Amino acid sequence: MKIRWLLLATLASCAQAPTIETRRPPNIVVIFMDDMGYADIGPFGAKAYRTPNLDRLAKEGRIFTDFYVPQAVCSASRASLMTGCYNVRVGILGALGPKSKVGISSSERTLAEVCKQKGYATAIYGKWHLGDDRQFLPLQHGFDEYFGLPYSNDMWPLHPTAKNFPDLPLIEGNEVVKPKVSHEDQEMLTTWYTERAVRFIEKNRERPFFLYVPHAMVHVPLHVSDRFRGKSGVGLFGDVMMEVDWSVGEIVGAIRKNGLEKDTLVIFTSDNGPWLSYGEHAGSAYPLREGKATMFDGGCREPMIAWWPGRIPAGTACREPAVTIDVLPTVAKLIGAALPDHAIDGLDIGPLLFGEPGAKSPHEALYFYWGRELHAVRWGTWKLHFAHAYPTLNGRPGGKGGLPAKYDTARVELSLFDLEKDPGETVDVKADHPDVVQKMEALAETMRKDLGDAALKRPATGAREPGRIKE
């Protein structure tokens, strides 16, 4: 009788014991700015205008102070984010123009395709820029929905310095829905992308989703809706940034409204630094050196905020180096998806995201190519530049009214910078640290054996071909 009573008591205890909560795989939201500088949002130093939604995102999440893109230009940067590879490996260089003969290869596995393995709903609202032929568009690379521009918003007949561009199309799915985008349309792009993103969240609140919002802004020509025109009081750039901040608030607000904040990872960052030649229509990379189209940190080091309440420690900062190629393998690990079966360069940065004690960058070094030339290597807090030319304003102001100033061409010789003491890369200390230079040159040589170096006429034996239009 006593044994029977104990058995019944045990069964009752088990029935009343709390069960381990099993949550669904996390939603993934990536908000990717265009040409936004390191100091263009409040959490990274912007003071001329307010970014309250991004301030809150950082307060509730984690900022990455040393977060990079592999190449400081549009298509190259997006190829790296989507594939988890240095863009040189996947054959996407520079900024692809209209009717490009190359684009993302169907043999690559995008972040969207990784998520599709686990039944995710996937959408992109914004700029794609990985080829505008049908075979290159997002629906052929893992996305269920696409609405946006196929390339940069300045690639149209109204470009201030190049008059040979065709009309700029707006695409939905695989079809052009507006063949000739106007100024009035561009003023609505941020609003349209945001509204679509919010509807997508609401529609898919019962299933895991991957939402990619690569904004057209703050790439020139700057455009802002009537709601934000003049709101900043400091000019058009400030107005545009305030509208972008509003967009972040709307997207995160939709996540909260649908009770998804504990199931959603949000990453906010940019594709490269500011296009400084546009002056008052460009942002700031302060305190970093130079901007877009250079592999100094002002071009390739980006502000990054990661937000996931209950998982990512609030109000914290990660100072370890990480890079956009790490997003794909990190997401794959989080959702239990398989990595692509070909070589990728990114690594899981989950320990950095979640603030694990003592977590370090999984990379021994980061490599920065311009085109197919290896321009720089980062190892720990050190950054070594190899001799190369780069565009600069040489301290002159940029242009006004949406017109660019002319760049000069400068040259940096072999130079070593200590980014911890000198984030502006101003003082060459190679003479004081020959052992560091030797180590970093050896790291560079290992990379050259894989991805080459056009400056030294070294072939990229580990690179794959981009997709090509069959003639």
Explained architecture:
- The chain is α/β, with parallel strands linked by helices.
- Helices cover about 25% and strands about 20% of the residues.
- It contains eleven helices and 19 strands.
- The protein has helices at about 1-15, 50-60, 75-85, 85-90, 110-115, 185-205, 235-255, 295-300, 325-335, 350-355, 435-450, and strands spanning about 25-35, 60-70, 100-105, 120-125, 145-150, 170, 175-180, 210-215, 265-270, 300-305, 315-320, 320-325, 365-370, 375-380, 380-385, 390, 410, 415-420, 465-470.
- Strands 1, 2, 4, 5, 6, 7, 8, 9, 10, 11 and 12 form an eleven-stranded mixed sheet that branches. A four-stranded antiparallel sheet has the order 13-14-15-18, covered by helices on one side.
- The longest helix has 22 residues, at about 235-255.
- It is globular, with a radius of gyration of 23 Å.
Write the layout of secondary structure elements.
Blueprint: H1 2-16, E1 27-33, H2 52-60, E2 62-68, H3 74-83, H4 87-90, E3 102-103, H5 111-116, E4 121-125, E5 145-148, E6 170-172, E7 175-178, H6 183-203, E8 209-214, H7 236-257, E9 264-270, H8 297-300, E10 301-307, E11 316-318, E12 322-323, H9 327-335, H10 350-353, E13 366-370, E14 373-379, E15 382-385, E16 388-392, E17 408-412, E18 415-418, H11 434-451, E19 467-468
Parallel strand pairs: 1-8, 1-9, 2-11, 2-12, 4-5, 4-8
Antiparallel strand pairs: 2-10, 3-19, 5-6, 6-7, 9-10, 13-14, 14-15, 15-18, 16-17
Helix pairs in contact: 6-7
Keywords:
eleven-stranded mixed beta sheet, alpha/beta, four-stranded antiparallel beta sheet, 19 strands, globular, 471 residues
